[in-house]
Write a structure and sequence with these properties.
Helix 2 runs antiparallel to helix 3. Strands 1, 2, 3, 4, 5, 6, 7, 13, 14, 18, 19, 20 and 21 form a 13-stranded mixed sheet that branches. The protein has a four-stranded mixed sheet with strand order 17-15-16-22. The longest helix is centred in the C-terminal third of the chain and has 18 residues. It is about 15% helix and about 40% strand. It has about 350 residues and is mainly beta. The relative contact order is 0.15.
C-alpha cells in the first residue's frame, strides 16, 4: 500500500487504522462524501473512542484536509473474528443539499448574484465564493428574480447558477465555489504504459444530432413584431453526428435570434462533448508533490488504447484504499466543453469550439 496517511478527526481526536477508505468529490455533486471502515479500538490507544452520527469531523490525507463536515452514519459490526465500525459522512454543503431554502422573502429586485447565493446558504453555515478571476458585477441575473418556497437550498442555488451560466461545487472544506469549467492544468501528464494503471473510455453517439434548431418567440415591440417576433430561430450543425438526426429545442423564456443561435451552438457542442468521457486509475492519492488530486482542473492524457491525446477536465475524483488493491485514485475525466454553460443570459455569439460544428443562422 501507499504510505499516504488518511485520518479522521472527531472531537479533537484522530482516528486511523483503516481497513478500507473511499473519498469522493465531483463538480457534479454539491457535496463531497467519505466512507471509512475501521477497527473499533485504534492502534496505540487504550480505550475505544465513540464516534456518533452528526459529529463534526475532518478527513485529511497526509495532513491536508479534503472533507470537513459531519458524520452521517455509524455502522458497528462484529463476527467471530472481531468487530469494527464503518463511518460515512459528507462535507458541510450536505445541509444545503438536504434542507429547504430559508429566505423569508421569495421575490428579489436588483439583487447581486453572489449576495443572493450567500443568502441561500448562510442558514446552514456554508460560505459561497466566486472562482478567482470572476467578477460578481459581470454575472447578470434578471432584475426581478423569484425562488419557489418549496425548493431545497441546493435547487435554489442551482437555478440561480443556471441563469448566470455558472457551475457550483463544494470546496470540501465548508464552502461552495461558483465557477466555470476549469482552464488551469495540473502538472502531471497521464501516459499509458507509465503512470496509468488502468482506464476505460466511452464514446457515445446517442446524445448527438446532426441538426439543432432552437425555435422560440420574443415579446413584440415597436421594432420587432409579427412573424419576426413569433418565429425566432437559430440553428447549428454537428457534422460528427449521423445525417437525419434532428433536435428541436423550445426555450422556456423569450429569446432573440442571436440568443437562439448561441443556444443552438451550445447544444451542438455540449452534445458532442458529453459523449466523450474516460475513467483513469492511478496509484496513490496525491498529484505529487502538490497534494490530493484536485477537481475542475485540466490534465493532459496520452492513451492510444483509449483514443485520447489531449486535455481532459477532471470532473471528479474517487480516492480508495483496500487490502487487495492498495491506495488508488480514479479520475472521472470529461471533455471540458461538456461543462460550457447554457448561454441563457450570456452575451450572444461566443466561440464555436468544435471544428465539425457549423454555425447556423
Amino acid at each position: 500500500m501507499s504510505d499516504e496517511a488518511i485520518e479522521l478527526l472527531v472531537n479533537g481526536k484522530k482516528y486511523g487504522g483503516w481497513k478500507t477508505a473511499r473519498v469522493t468529490r465531483s463538480i457534479e455533486a454539491l457535496c463531497g462524501s467519505f466512507s471509512l471502515s475501521v477497527s473499533e479500538r485504534w492502534s496505540g490507544q487504550n480505550q475505544s473512542w465513540p464516534i456518533n452520527e452528526d459529529d463534526e469531523c475532518t478527513v485529511s490525507i497526509d495532513g491536508s484536509p479534503v472533507i470537513t463536515g459531519y458524520v452521517g452514519k455509524v455502522s458497528p459490526s462484529f463476527d467471530a473474528s472481531g468487530h469494527g465500525i464503518t463511518i460515512e459522512g459528507r462535507d458541510k454543503a450536505c445541509d444545503v443539499v438536504d434542507c429547504s431554502a430559508q429566505l423569508g422573502a421569495w421575490q428579489f429586485s436588483n439583487v447581486d448574484l453572489l449576495s443572493l447565493a450567500q443568502k441561500i446558504c448562510r442558514p446552514y453555515g456554508v460560505t459561497v465564493s466566486l472562482q478567482s478571476g470572476l467578477v460578481s458585477s459581470g454575472l447578470s441575473i434578471p432584475k426581478k428574480y423569484s425562488i419557489d418556497p418549496g425548493d431545497t437550498a441546493a435547487t435554489a442555488l442551482e437555478n440561480l447558477c443556471k441563469v448566470a451560466g455558472l457551475l457550483r461545487h463544494s470546496d470540501g472544506l465548508g464552502g461552495i465555489v461558483l465557477t466555470r469549467s476549469g482552464v488551469e492544468p495540473v502538472a502531471t501528464v497521464l501516459t499509458e504504459g507509465q503512470n496509468i494503471l488502468s482506464g476505460s473510455a466511452t464514446f457515445d453517439a446517442t446524445g448527438r444530432f446532426r441538426t439543432y434548431e432552437v425555435a422560440g418567440s420574443h415579446k413584440g415591440r415597436d421594432d420587432l413584431s409579427g412573424e419576426t417576433a413569433a418565429g425566432v430561430k437559430g440553428t447549428a450543425t454537428d457534422l460528427g453526428a449521423r445525417a437525419g438526426r434532428v433536435r428541436i429545442i423550445r426555450p422556456d423564456n423569450n429569446t432573440t435570434a442571436a440568443l437562439a443561435k448561441a443556444r443552438a451552438e451550445w447544444e451542438a457542442a455540449n452534445g458532442a462533448a458529453q459523449g466523450q468521457s474516460a475513467a483513469i486509475v492511478v496509484k496513490g492519492w496525491t498529484e505529487s508533490p502538490f497534494g490530493p488530486w484536485p477537481i475542475n482542473r485540466l490534465v493532459r492524457v496520452k492513451s492510444p488504447t483509449l483514443r485520447i491525446n489531449g486535455q481532459m477536465l477532471i470532473a471528479g475524483v474517487t480516492l480508495t484504499r483496500d487490502i487487495d488493491s492498495g491506495t488508488l485514485t480514479t479520475l472521472d475525466l470529461r471533455d471540458p466543453r461538456a461543462f460550457t454553460p447554457d448561454p441563457t443570459i450570456a452575451k450572444p455569439g461566443g466561440n464555436n469550439y468544435w471544428r465539425e460544428i457549423e454555425r447556423g443562422v
